Amino acid sequence: MKFFENVPKVQYEGSKSTNPFAFKYYDADRIIAGKKMKEHLKFALSWWHTLVAGGQDPFGINTMDRSYGGKTDPMELAKARADAAFDFMDKLGIEYFCFHDADLAPEGNSLQERNENLKEMVAYVKEKMQDTPVKLLWGTSNCFTNPRFMHGGATSCEADVFAWAATQVKNAIDVTMELGGKGYVFWGGREGYETLLNTDVELELDNYARMLKMAVRYARSKGYDGDFYIEPKPKEPTKHQYDFDVASCVAFLEKYDLMQDFRINVEANHATLAGHTFQHELRMARTFGVFGSVDANQGDLLLGWDTDQFPSNVYDTTLAMYEILKAGGFTNGGLNFDAKVRRPSFTPEDIAYAYILGMDSFAFGLIKAQQLIEDGRVDAFVEKKYASYQEGIGEKIRKNETNFEELETYALKNGEPTLSSGRQEYLEGVVNTILLDGKME
Ligand code: XUL
Ligand code: CO
Predict the structure, then answer these.
(1) 386: buried, middle or exposed (CB in 10 Å: 19+, 13-18, 0-12)?
(2) Which of 46, 138, 52, 87 is nearest to 337 (CA)?
(3) What is the mean pLDDT of the segment spanning 52-60?
(4) I need a surface site. Which of 272, 315, 336, 382 has the fewest CB within 10 A?
(5) Measuring CA to CA, which residue among 139, 218, 216 is closest to residue 179?
(6) For residue 331, is pLDDT > 90?
(7) Which residues have a Cβ under 8 Å from the Cβ of 180 and sit 6 or more positions away?
């Protein structure tokens, strides 16, 4: 029996459809602003949450049977996961996937066995990719689950762990390239600290940068022309993660001269954990010129941890798509559903409902973001708000053609500045009108 046997091929039926296995907004080939919806959105399946995670939480064991017909042999299980993944992507029309080495292949009993298992699984997956539109969005290495990474991977106090992590990253880069991936992610789950009392922050940051530099040097020497991404997250599992948010990542990349090779993979739930909105993090990435990819999910405002829920909040997806469109859209990146079904949603069908929800939420967001841009009221307002920099003394400031002496003379003569309103409530009303008017063209 196939794992997703009860999931039919999912197609677009429009917002009036009550078929739970149909897209209400995601119409893959529909053209929006000159590009197909599927090209704007580039949806990706996350191997770990979709095929491996079984609903375990700190208070209970798995609720979901993810043994794919009772598989106990680790390699057989890994292959059954791959079979299920490709069946699912075909049914949902998903053309990308993302993986960690550890969720694709079993760890084995030695580093050598780990590398061999990974190679074997990659050959298996590569074969399955033939004659399908499926591509790898990005790969990564899990340097956080195994107990050897308790002090970190690249930032571990143990040089032997650094060497082990480097070996994992090297092999994960190899297989990312083997599968034609154009992205490689560093998410530093344990690259941080629990207490400063036992931590040499300077050495840890230097070592983290050394790992990234070696990764870039190695991959480029092998002909890799894709992107490297850092995925910010402020905490969890460590109390303080070095890649706190987009701004701290940019400071790190600047300090260590890594800006030309790295971009940011922005995750919605990580943004809110950092006390930011998803839109804020996307705006910062766009502003610093490091917008790369997105881990699409959402948190719960009442819970202070990374719940990794499938995105349902269309207000947030609209503002996210607005930022993504303004950033020029994805190049090598895409929208990876780094999201998992809730613990009581334990059936294979729930995974399909979850992806349909997420894909429809972003498709809706794309349609509405484009309407927001075409409507023009928000952009026009912002332009007008800063109009003082288009002429007179403002223009001189903007063009770096003035100095303190001239500004003092000007301010003394000019007197009290005249201000205009920020009109937040008016603008929120504009967004609501566009979201709620029912117009879907
Ligand atoms: C953890 C997380 C990771 C990264 C890849 O919060 O988001 O799954 O996306 O390691
Ligand atoms: Co993520």
Answers:
(1) exposed
(2) 46
(3) 97
(4) 382
(5) 139
(6) yes
(7) 135, 136
- Cβ atoms of residues 331 and 38 within 8 Å: no
Give CA–CA dist 152/194, Å, rounded.
11
Q: Tokens 């409530």 belong to which residue?
A: 425
> 233 CA to middle of ligand 1, Å?
9
- Within 10 angstroms of residue 53's Cβ, the number of other Cβ atoms is 18
Residue 1 has a pLDDT of 81
DSSP string, 34-50: TEEHHHHH-EEEEHIII
Ligand 1: atom nearest CA of 270 is 6
Q: Give the pLDDT confidence of 204-261 residue by residue, as tens digits.
A: 999 999 999 999 999 999 999 999 999 999 999 999 999 999 999 999 999 999 999 9
Q: Is the pLDDT of residue 190 over 90?
A: yes
Catalytic residues: 100, 103
**CA angle (421 as vertex; 398, 369 as ends), nearest 5:** 80
Contact 333, 293 (CB under 8 A): yes
CA distances for 338 relative to 121, 159, 280, 298, 311, angstroms = 21, 31, 19, 9, 10
- Å from CA of 174 to ligand 1 middle: 20
Residue 185 Cβ inside 6 Å of ligand 1? The answer reads: yes
